[in-house]
Design a protein that fits this description.
2 copies of one chain form a homodimer. Chain A contains 12 helices and 10 strands. With 349 residues, chain A is an alpha+beta fold. Chain A has 2 domains: 176 residues, 2-Layer Sandwich (Creatine Kinase, Chain A, domain 2), CATH 3.30.590.10; 98 residues, no CATH class. In chain A, the strands form 2 sheets. An 8-stranded antiparallel β-sheet of chain A has the order 2-3-4-5-1-8-10-9, with helices on one face. A two-stranded antiparallel sheet of chain A has the order 6-7. In chain A, helix 3 packs across helix 11 and helix 9 runs antiparallel to helix 10. The radius of gyration of chain A is 21 Å and the shape is globular. Chain A starts with a helix and ends with a helix. At the A-B interface, helix 8 of A face helix 8 of B.
């Protein structure tokens, strides 16, 4: 698959389908795995890093499910192309920044992505649309089983999978759910909710993972503990927390609709009106306005809004996507113009 | 004419026609006149006030041009009705507030309005659309001549017409022009321009006359001196100043279009987008957004915008007009809802 092909289709996690897709954008399971008897990437010398890279790529290529996958060698790629992969949530910002002996393996549906030589030798993820951790787990577990037949994982019976950072040791698993929580933000309950889940050893991040701010009312919530419980237990634990947050968001939406319907309709319709008419618009303002429009669609206040088209705009309006669409480097000013043009063309139908 | 009839037609000054109507909304001439040997209204006792009121109404009713006029006795009117007349620029806010023995006489086209027992016994005005002081003067001069055959004006050969406030003595005339100066405001030149004309004895007011702030980039500019020059000289003096301001606004518009076209198009299109989609909107925000849309129409950036419909919205979205349209008292919150509804119905065609 060429990079430009990404622009022609919608990532699985963006399809706007799946359980609770009015609040849950996507569910993601990632597993951290390392090769036995080879230094972790941060400690590896060049020979070891090259060896790990080749071993992983070679092993993964033999797995049936991943036969049609593309291997991106990051050192050979230009900045915009790497940023595109970050914007599509296929790899971390860190992976795009230090690229020596690193790779990304992605299947054609963008369901599976494997970072090679990031913090661990393998960081594999499966993303699904909606609230769907179990399905994501089923897929990644199968892939992990197949890969484990090709590669020798670093594993100790008492500890589980060994990882560069001790917080990942054990299952090596992290489950994350991307939530859209506009009502909890607008009713100023979000800080309380996030404080409560942080006490339960969950972390909250923004749209683009570690170190990014929550914009557009999107929150990515994931478990911190990966040791001492089975994968299924961890997933059930996350699911329980997410179900509570979904309930709270739904309650907050009901309260807003019953008490402040006009104010809500005003904000939602203004957001759509601005998106349909702006000639210059930043990435951040776009995300915030799209968030309100999505809420309007979810609440049935806006008719004829295609949720999938809306979800796509969250990603296609990002800087690298815009530049790939235009097929050239664009300054911030030019991007703000092209972004507004793209949004108008998609929403004024 | 009934008050409700006002809602069915567009005031002459709002028609958006006449010379320079892209910048000049309307031109207005008013004359202050008093009855001979009767105390000025502020000093009059009740008997004198009633006598002045009846004398003026009686005299005016005999003038041919004013045969079909309506006489509003302000003490008999409710607050919303009086405010409606203020919003249509037919009388001053002061005249609406102290109503004992006061009246307003208006012709059916709303070209001529005569306040009785405001600061002077007669305050008559003629308003015309666009930059048109000469025509306004021609009309009011004819009416004044006719009225002077029915009433004895207080007049001294050396002083001219006597008035309650000495600043009006002499011709008793004030010419004002309502200008829309968004480019001078946006390019931050407006303060310099207004400071310069104030040195030339001109005053600047907002949309609703004395004591009101300039909103929506509207400025009402009028002469302060009414003594020592003929009416024609005063009008030529005002015209000269206004022509310079029109030139400066036009230059500022050209500069903005050539240097910041995209930013301007963005602001103009967003303004229209918000007006077309808002569900709650204040009077002030409405005026500001309509100002930008009007600029967009004037610059040819917005197509299919009817300037007359736009001008009407400036007035019909005002509080009293909204309440008359709905035929009931409305709270501020209800007005903000109804205003948004009215705007949407007029702009989404």
């Amino acid at each position: 698959m060429q990079l430009n092909d990404f622009l022609k289709h919608t990532s699985e996690w963006l399809k706007g389908t799946g359980p609770n897709s009015d609040i849950v954008i996507s569910s993601r399971i990632r597993l951290a795995r390392n090769l036995d008897k080879l230094s972790f990437p941060h400690w590896a010398n060049k020979t070891q890093a090259v060896q790990a890279l080749n071993t992983v790529i070679d092993g993964v290529s033999k797995v049936n499910y991943l036969k049609g996958s593309t291997v991106f060698k990051l050192a050979d790629m230009d900045g915009v192309d790497k940023q595109l992969l970050v914007e599509r949530h296929l790899m971390s910002l860190e992976h795009a920044q230090k690229t020596e002996n690193k790779a990304l393996i992605v299947d054609s549906e963008e369901i599976v992505a494997i970072m090679v030589n990031e913090e661990d030798h393998l960081r594999m993820q499966v993303m699904q649309s909606g609230f769907n951790l179990h399905e994501a787990w089923g897929i990644i577990n199968g892939i992990d089983d197949s890969i484990s037949k090709e590669l020798n994982y670093a594993y100790l019976p008492d500890w589980g999978y060994l990882t560069a950072c001790p917080t990942n040791t054990g299952t090596g698993m992290r489950g994350s759910v991307m939530l859209h929580l506009p009502a909890l933000v607008m009713t100023r309950q979000i800080d309380r909710v996030l404080a409560a889940i942080s006490k339960l050893s969950f972390t909250t991040r923004g749209l683009y993972g570690e170190g990014t701010q929550a914009t557009g009312n999107f929150f990515q919530i994931s478990n911190q503990v990966s040791l001492g419980h089975s994968e299924e237990e961890i997933i059930e634990n996350i699911n329980g927390i997410i179900r509570q947050i979904i309930d709270q968001e739904n309650q907050a939406r009901e309260v807003m609709v019953s008490r402040n319907r006009a104010i809500l309709e005003d904000r939602i319709n203004r957001s759509l009106g601005i998106l349909k008419s702006a000639r210059i618009i930043s990435s951040q303002e776009t995300t915030e306005l799209l968030s309100m429009v999505r809420l309007g669609a979810d609440l049935g206040m806006l008719k004829d809004i295609d949720r999938r088209r809306l979800n796509e705009l969250f990603i296609t309006t990002q800087p690298a996507h815009l530049q790939k669409l235009e097929n050239k480097k664009l300054s911030t000013e030019d991007r703000d113009l092209k972004r507004a043009e793209l949004i108008r063309s998609r929403l004024n139908l």
